[in-house]
């Protein structure tokens, strides 16, 4: 039988993957993976685990930047996608409407009070772009406000709201009318809104870069100020939504209802790209107000059957398996374990988060002998402090984690909701051993970290 053979292609070309990426895709990424020892040959994934071709099992606490909230290849999602393919549905007719997108919108509306209109797209960044357009048209205002240290995506509109020079440098000029205020600073926000020319204030309820939590009264006061000054409140729940923090969306922790809520990542079930914008009816109806404006904003693949079914299957799994409750209880247990390690290892400065979105901030060690070395790394790149932990967690304990952002001394954990109690013990014990080891200059990771620091200084000198 002729045609494409997946197994044969993987078997024949698996060993070439790095060479192919060097030649045709992102070569620097390959070099990073090789430098820090993350160049493993993964063969498959299941639940909370990755498996390499040698049969080794890895605990995935990165979850594809939060995409695999249900774990990898969740049976409810994969079964639903097989059903779509087997049904030979009339997908993306375009001059028609799909029952599947209508049902998904209905399901989301029941979970997001006050938001009964939805726009579907392909990613979190596309959701941000739609929110910018909707807010400007509905309010007749131009300015869009976001927070310092925010991340909203890398397309031009989303990048214009993202406060990160490492992503913005060299890509200007960006979208006009965009500015930032400090996160958790209500007086600064009120001053910015007082001109009554801000269409929308877009905010991550918990900032992904650094896992920064709002003060207890911050988001409720943000909502009040936005209403007072005629500004739409947009909650970017691309990472925090779909149960990640132990509630369906994070703003529920503070009793807040937004004018728009942005979803993506976990809504995909880890299989098919999807984004969603939940919108108050009056905003939506002001944008799509006449038949000749019915297609004023859209996206070719935005309501594809595979994506809609992935979203429906994800919501089904969350409900049937009570996975949001599990994210809350497992997150509490994991943070308690990390807090106990903080008392034992002075190098942990803070443990913070909600549900299974956790930040572990690394600080200066208590030992006088180590302080000079740590100060050096801190001056070169704060992220190197975290790499002293992230690299051996992976190399020696097969736990995949990430640094929470460029030049940040914070490790971010985004475990899948299906992790077990044994996985929590695995994580706790691995952190305990790595933290103990990295506080001695003879620790096995120090030579690599010194090499990375030297390379960073060399790159900085050549760039300057």
| Residues in helices, as a percent range | 40-55%
Unreliable stretches covering 5 or more consecutive residues: none
First and last CA, distance = 58 Å
Q: Sum up the overall morphology in one term.
A: globular
Say what the CATH topology of the largest domain is.
Answer: Aspartate Aminotransferase, domain 2
Output the strand order for the largest sheet. 4-10-9-8-7-5-6
Radius of gyration: 23 Å
- Proportion of strand residues: 5-15%
Number of helices: 18
Corresponding CATH architecture of the largest domain: 3-Layer(aba) Sandwich
Structural class: alpha/beta
Taking all residues together, what is the mean pLDDT? 92
Please explain how this structure is put together.
The chain is an alpha/beta fold and 464 residues long. The protein is globular. The strands form 3 sheets. Strands 4-10-9-8-7-5-6 form a 7-stranded mixed sheet, sandwiched between helices. A 4-stranded mixed sheet has the order 1-2-3-13. It is 45% helix and 15% strand. It has 2 domains: 75-320, 3-Layer(aba) Sandwich (Aspartate Aminotransferase, domain 2), CATH 3.40.640; 323-456, Aspartate Aminotransferase, domain 1 (Alpha-Beta Complex). α6 (99-111) packs parallel to α13 and α7 crosses α12 (281-287). The mean pLDDT is 92. A hairpin with a 2-residue loop joins β1 and β2 (49-52).
Task: Give the tags.
4-stranded mixed beta sheet, Aspartate Aminotransferase, domain 2, alpha/beta, Aspartate Aminotransferase, domain 1, 7-stranded mixed beta sheet, 464 residues
């Amino acid at each position: 039988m002729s045609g494409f053979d997946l197994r044969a292609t993987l078997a024949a070309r698996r060993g070439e993957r790095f060479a192919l990426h060097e030649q045709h895709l992102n070569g620097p990424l390959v070099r990073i993976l090789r430098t820090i020892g993350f160049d493993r040959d993964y063969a498959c994934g299941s639940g909370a685990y990755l498996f390499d071709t040698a049969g080794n099992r890895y605990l995935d606490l990165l979850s594809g930047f939060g995409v695999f909230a249900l774990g990898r290849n969740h049976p409810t999602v994969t079964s639903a996608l097989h059903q779509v393919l087997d049904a030979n549905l009339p997908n993306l007719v375009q001059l028609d409407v799909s029952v599947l997108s209508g049902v998904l919108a209905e399901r989301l509306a029941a979970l997001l009070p006050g938001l009964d209109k939805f726009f579907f797209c392909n990613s979190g960044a596309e959701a941000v772009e739609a929110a910018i357009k909707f807010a400007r048209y509905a309010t007749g205002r131009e300015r869009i406000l976001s927070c310092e240290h925010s991340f909203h995506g890398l397309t031009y509109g989303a990048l214009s709201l993202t406060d990160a020079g490492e992503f913005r440098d060299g890509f200007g000029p960006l979208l006009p009318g965009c500015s930032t205020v400090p996160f958790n600073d209500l007086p600064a926000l009120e001053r910015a809104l007082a001109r009554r020319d801000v269409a929308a204030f877009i905010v991550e309820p918990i900032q992904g870069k650094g896992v920064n939590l709002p003060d207890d009264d911050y988001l409720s006061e943000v909502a009040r100020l936005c209403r007072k000054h005629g500004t739409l409140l947009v909650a970017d729940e691309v990472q925090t939504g779909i149960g990640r923090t132990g509630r369906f969306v994070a703003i529920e922790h503070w009793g807040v209802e937004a004018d728009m809520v942005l979803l993506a990542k976990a809504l995909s079930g880890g299989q098919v790209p999807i984004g969603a914008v939940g919108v108050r009816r009056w905003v939506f109806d002001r944008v799509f107000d006449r038949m000749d404006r019915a297609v004023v904003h859209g996206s070719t693949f935005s309501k594809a059957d595979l994506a809609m079914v992935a979203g429906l299957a994800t919501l089904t799994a969350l409900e049937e398996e009570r996975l949001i409750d599990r994210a809350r209880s497992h997150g509490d247990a994991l943070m308690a374990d990390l807090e106990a390690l903080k008392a034992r290892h002075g190098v942990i400065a803070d443990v913070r988060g909600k549900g299974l979105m956790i930040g572990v901030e690394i600080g200066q060690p208590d030992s006088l002998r180590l302080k000079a070395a740590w100060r050096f790394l801190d001056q070169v790149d704060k992220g190197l402090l975290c790499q002293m932990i992230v690299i051996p967690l992976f190399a020696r304990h097969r736990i995949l984690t990430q640094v929470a952002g460029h030049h940040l001394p914070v490790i971010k954990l985004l475990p899948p909701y299906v992790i077990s109690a044994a996985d929590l013990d695995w994580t706790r014990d691995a952190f305990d051993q790595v933290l103990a080891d990295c506080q001695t200059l003879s620790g096995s990771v120090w030579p690599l970290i010194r090499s990375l620091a030297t390379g960073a200084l060399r790159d900085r000198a050549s760039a300057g």
